[in-house]
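Task: sequence design from structure.
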């Protein structure tokens, strides 16, 4: 009998698996796993080793330095306070809006539900560029207050300098941008809540605020936890908004300024890892709380008969209040459009002179034209990569289960918990002085970073399509002699094509407007994507902010059109594209 070698003993488990599972599926799963290891775990592992090791050996000294340095400790504290304030205020806005739009028959509810998504079509930092002008001492907001006789036009010293309060300005901009995310998660939880539970509580004497506090809110707490964790992570790691408002006391801006020394900066590695730890802990705590709450839901949602009529006094007032809230949330978008169209705007509520020349400049200036071309290139290839990875993960998880398929599905959701700020910084540190060095050419890493960030959307879209596709047709095809690959391309793929297109359109649009990866990974103007060019222009004198706003309008148009196409192609509700 031949002696069993060490190599054969290692291959025996794989041989057994290949007999039980198709080798091609195992190879596909391993290939996807390698992508995650190389471009998600390796950069983080690189940072971890750099933060824990010094010339004398292993140490926690770099982490302890963060708390000994008063400025860094203050930055972490302020970021936590900012994220907490944003989360609480956003939920206070979103919960009542979701409750009334889901539970009551409201005039124009379909239109209001669509308009609520408006804040999502513009990154908050782009809106901050125009809002910075609105909030200036002699800006339009103070001019409105002067027109209302609240401020004295003859006493400029009495005018409010809003930008002297960057903490609250950042919080307000984040609340305006993020509240649709909270609304969608809470509305989804409310729409699937079994109404018989509340009816039973009413029969026992509960009503009004007591019913909401003791029954409704506990039952929708999974949706609240999901929204709160996501809001906290997004606010805590938001880079663009405080950067544009020149609020440098937050940890995300501190990390941005450490990128230049990312190759050899163990304290910087420790700071980035601390941000990741806080984000992951917030995500896991919310996930744990969601799993502990038993909730009875309706598979098809609430019926129209479960909705109530508003009292006559609120029939017009409530839609008006919701519309006013939406209008306020769209003020940054309106400000971006007005700034892009203005030729002169000083000491007046609206621009003095209007022009289209800032849009014309987009096609004439090398920086703007090149950045638009770069974004189209990066976003196209990142979307193609998302299609391949998302379809592979969804297929392995839904159709052809292999031993680690559930791992792949869970890994695909990790970008929701691991901030792009962390991954981008890890890329700069881990791949410097290699063929992928972003200082030389960030194209490959930007494509991969964009794809990793938007992979959850694609996996979700592909999984939804595969669950709706008929397995009977696939089995019939293979019983007639078609190979699994041929069956997939001729039977499965046509059935899920609308979901693929919808997911790809949204992944492309979000990649075009990705902020953290673009700001950190693009060093040279020749490789700037749109968002990095917008940031660069916003900090230039003259027409820079107006041209940056014109690019922001282009971004709004791209994302708005993408949302419309995604809804039309997939047939899903508009909010499905943003529900996390």
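Answer:
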């Amino acid at each position: 009998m031949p002696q069993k070698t060490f190599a054969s003993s290692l291959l025996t488990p794989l041989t057994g698996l290949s007999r039980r599972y198709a080798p091609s599926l195992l190879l596909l799963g391993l290939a996807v796993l390698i992508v995650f290891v190389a471009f998600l775990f390796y950069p983080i592992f690189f940072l971890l080793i750099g933060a824990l090791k010094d010339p004398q050996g292993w140490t926690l000294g770099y982490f302890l330095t963060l708390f000994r340095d008063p400025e860094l400790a203050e930055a972490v504290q302020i970021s936590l306070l900012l994220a907490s304030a944003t989360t609480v205020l956003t939920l206070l806005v979103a919960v009542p809006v979701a409750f009334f739009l889901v539970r009551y028959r409201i005039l124009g509810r379909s239109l209001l539900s669509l308009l609520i998504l408006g804040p999502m079509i513009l990154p908050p930092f782009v809106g901050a560029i125009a809002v910075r002008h609105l909030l200036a001492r002699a800006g339009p907001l103070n001019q409105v207050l002067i027109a209302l006789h609240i401020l004295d036009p003859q006493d400029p010293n009495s005018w409010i300098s809003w930008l002297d309060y960057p903490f609250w300005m950042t919080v307000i901009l984040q609340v305006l941008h993020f509240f649709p995310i909270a609304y969608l998660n809470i509305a989804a939880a409310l729409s699937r809540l079994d109404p018989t539970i509340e009816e039973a509580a009413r029969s026992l004497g509960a009503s009004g605020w007591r019913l909401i506090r003791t029954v409704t809110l506990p039952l929708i707490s999974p949706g609240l936890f999901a929204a709160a964790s996501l809001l906290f992570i997004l606010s805590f790691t938001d880079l663009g908004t405080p950067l544009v408002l020149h609020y440098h006391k937050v940890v995300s801006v501190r990390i941005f300024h450490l990128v230049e020394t990312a190759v050899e900066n163990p304290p910087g590695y420790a700071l980035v890892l601390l941000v990741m730890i806080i984000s992951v802990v917030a995500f896991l705590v919310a996930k744990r709380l969601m799993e502990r709450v038993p909730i009875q839901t309706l598979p098809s949602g609430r019926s129209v008969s479960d909705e109530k009529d508003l009292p006559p006094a609120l029939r017009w007032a409530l839609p008006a209040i919701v519309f006013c809230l939406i209008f306020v949330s769209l003020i940054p978008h309106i400000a971006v459009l007005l700034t892009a169209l203005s030729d002169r705007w000083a000491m007046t509520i609206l621009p003095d002179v209007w022009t289209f020349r800032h849009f014309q400049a987009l096609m004439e200036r090398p920086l703007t034209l090149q950045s638009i071309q770069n974004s189209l290139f990066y976003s196209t290839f990142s979307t193609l990569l998302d299609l391949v990875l998302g379809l592979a993960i969804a297929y392995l998880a839904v159709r052809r289960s292999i031993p680690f398929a559930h791992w792949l599905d869970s890994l695909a959701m990790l970008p929701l918990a691991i901030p792009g700020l962390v991954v981008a910084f890890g890329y700069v540190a881990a791949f410097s002085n290699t063929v992928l060095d972003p200082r030389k050419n960030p194209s490959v890493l930007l494509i991969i970073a964009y794809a990793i960030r938007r992979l959850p959307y694609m996996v979700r879209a592909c999984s939804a399509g595969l669950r709706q596709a008929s397995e009977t047709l696939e089995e019939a095809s293979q019983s007639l002699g078609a190979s699994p690959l041929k069956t997939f391309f001729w039977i499965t793929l046509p059935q899920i094509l609308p979901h693929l297109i919808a997911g790809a359109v949204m992944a492309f649009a979000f990649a075009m407007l990705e902020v953290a990866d673009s700001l950190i990974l693009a060093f040279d103007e020749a490789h700037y994507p749109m968002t990095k060019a917008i940031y660069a222009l916003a900090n230039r004198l003259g027409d820079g902010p107006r041209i940056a706003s014109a690019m922001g309008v282009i971004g709004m148009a791209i994302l708005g059109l993408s949302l419309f196409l995604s809804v039309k192609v997939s047939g899903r509700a508009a909010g499905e594209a943003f529900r996390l």
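Strands lie at 53-54, 57-58, 104-105, 308-309, 342-344, 353-354.
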